[in-house]
Amino acid sequence: MHLILLTTLTMMAFAANSILNRMAVDGAGMAPMAFAAIRLVSGALVLFVLARGALVFKGRRRGVGVLALLTYAVGFSLAYGTLDAGLGALILFGMVQVTMFTAAVLGRDEVPLQRWIGGALAFGGLVWLLSPGEGAVPIGPAMAMALAGVAWGFYSLAGRGEPDAVAGTAANFVLAAPLGLLAWAMVGGGGVSAAGIGLAVLSGAVTSGMGYALWYRLVPQLGASRAAVAQLTVPVIAGLGGALLLAEVPSLRLILSGALVLGGVALSLSSGWVRAGRT
């Protein structure tokens, strides 16, 4: 029961990142780049403390992790200037899984037929969600979130061999934070509000920094397959939170395509291939 409660709390924290970003950028007038930069800085500070300063900055894995983290944070914030919380989380989650599936195929891992079918269903759901027509998703923000999903997939793949997950994530955040500040200074584009700053700090320090730290402690207890299945709940929780807190109403296309994406991923996971990613 204790493990279930902590896992539920962590999934709620992951979903909260979507809601907090949406509230700040769309509701509080916060510039997306400002939100991303402050989120990275806040996360870096908390993770540095949690890792007790024992950070390793060298290695190819670190370079990939830092660039992927920065790309994820920026794309995530830019997308939520327009996308609803649940819709954005679905695109993000779907692209993370598609990226990791593609990496397995390119790496010549054994991929059974069941996983091919599940991957095809999930990809088809994303294509339907992003296709033109009634209830179509704005293509620019959708592509920004898709890029964030690809980046997070690379981040997850790069971190699989991390000897100390919390210290490795702390190092990535510490190195990505100044790059985020630099990108904000160079791009600019929008204002900053007290409410937006507070939401960015909450997202970085609590739902990202502490949420990631808790997740890394839970994954060994859950196992890879159960951890990955648990993340299927994130788009659902984000959608419910968006409906309750932001009055967002999901379209029929989102509901049906979302069921296709999550169902396809669940089918792939049922044979235990996908490792736990990080959202």
Automatic annotation (TrEMBL):
This is DMT family transporter. The keyword Membrane applies. The chain crosses the membrane at residues 31-51, 63-81, 87-106, 113-130, 136-158, 165-187, 193-215, 227-246, 252-274. The keyword tRNA processing does not apply. It holds the Pfam family EamA. Keywords: Membrane, Transmembrane, Transmembrane helix. Residues 143-269 form the EamA domain. It comes from the Bacteria.
